[in-house]
Amino acid sequence: MPSQGFVYRFFATLGELGILNPKSQQIGGIEPPEGRDNFIINQRLAIKKALQDYKSDLLVIFNLNFGHTDPQIIIPNGGIVLINGIEKTISFQYNS
After folding, report:
1. How many CB atoms lie within 10 A of CB 10?
2. Taking a C-beta distance cutoff of 8 angstroms, is the pair 28, 13 a contact?
3. Could you read off the pLDDT of 44-58 as tens digits, one per residue?
4. Which of 54, 74, 56, 55 is nearest to 64 (CA)?
5. Which of 3, 28, 39, 53 is deepest in the core (most CB within 10 A)?
6. Which contiguous run of DSSP H or E holds residue 90?
7. With the CA atoms of 32, 40, 50 and 14 taken in that order, what torsion angle do they form, in degrees rounded to the nearest 10?
8. Which positions ≥6 away from 65 have C-beta within 8 Å?
9. Are 71 and 65 in contact (CB under 8 A)?
């Protein structure tokens, strides 16, 4: 279990890098050397390669616009997300 000090330092580091700013598109205002589009592609390929190398059958979903993205989909707290890996569908349910 991480200590309170560790958790603070972790988030303080994110703040110093500019990651905690809403809708930040670049970390610390620095453009990736390969450009933003290639950076996204390379990150996706790295994840897929690691899962393949470790023979993981973990379901991974890319390109969902929620969280710190722009544009952004709002998902209410308490909602239910249904992910169907076979049909490749995602649906959201919320009962108010």
Report:
1. 11
2. no
3. 999 999 999 999 988
4. 74
5. 39
6. strand 89-93
7. 60
8. 71, 72, 73
9. yes
